[in-house]
Amino acid sequence: MKRKILCILTLITTLIACGSDSYNPDLPVPNTDKTIVVNGFDVQVYQRQENTSSVGDSIIRGTVYSSHDTVAFNDAIIGIDTQTEYVQNSAKIMWYKPFSLMNKAYALSPVPPQVAQKISAITVTSAYDFSDEYPSGSNLNDLFLVTEASVGNQFYTFEEDKRAYFTVTEYIENNIHNEHAHAGFILNLMLNTAPELDSSITFYIEIELDNGKVFSLETTEITYQMPQ
Questions:
Q1: What's the CA gap between 166 and 172, in Å, rounded?
Q2: In the 8-state DSSP scheme, what is residue 32?
Q3: What is the DSSP string of 46-107?
Q4: pLDDT digit string (tens) for 145-178?
């Protein structure tokens, strides 16, 4: 009897010694060798995908917009894609699994990739008069909704079981102190108000990162349908 107890204790001690250095296969493994950093942004205008509603749950990019076509104010999506690169880290971080005699079932989703920098400011302007209230050079952040952003960033709330998208101003305010926010890989903007002008319009978008870098973008000309 004593021999059996001694054997069991020896086995447990051995397993603990081995288990303390064993890797946890259930934990998502971040790529600690490299960091994703921003080196620029691309901007493209898209027509909104058909069969989606401005009050629906999602607003999706469709085909690339042609400046020869007129488009409703809420059917043109300004798509911003982040140019990124990997930077080698100087140190590695190892994740370990504590020993357990019982198997545990983990329901962890893979950790989505994140960009190291955060967006600290976005400013949307135009050299054209948007309306009497917004002459050329005005800050147009409150006139644009953020209809898509990378995982980790907050860009909508739910109202009556539907998405209520943040304006650009609200997007920055909600994510500046959000520990999960990052510059992301995609950002879609769409007007929430029709412009009052008789000509095509070009928008200028300035994006500032938390490391002080500033990027200036310019859209193609967009010809909006005149409000009835």
A1: 9
A2: T
A3: EEEPTT--TTSS---EEEEPPTTSEE-TTSEEEEEEEEEEEEE-SS---------SS-----
A4: 999 999 999 999 998 888 999 999 999 999 999 9
Rounded to whole angstroms, the Cα distance separating 139 from 134 reads 8
Q: Give Cβ neighbours of residue 151 (< 8 Å, ≥ 6 apart).
A: 112
Q: Is the pTM of this model over 0.85?
A: no
Which residue did the predictor score with more confidence, 211 or 102? 211
Give the amino acid at 45. V
Measured CA to CA, the distance from residue 139 to residue 204 in angstroms comes to 10
CA–CA separation, 74 and 47 (whole Å) = 9
Give the SS3 label for residue 184: coil
Rounded CA separation 211/39 (Å): 12
User: In 3D, which of 72, 70, 195, 220 has the Cα closest to residue 138?
Assistant: 195
Q: Return the bridge partners of 149, or none.
A: 187
The two three-digit tokens of residue 113, written as one number: 């990739």
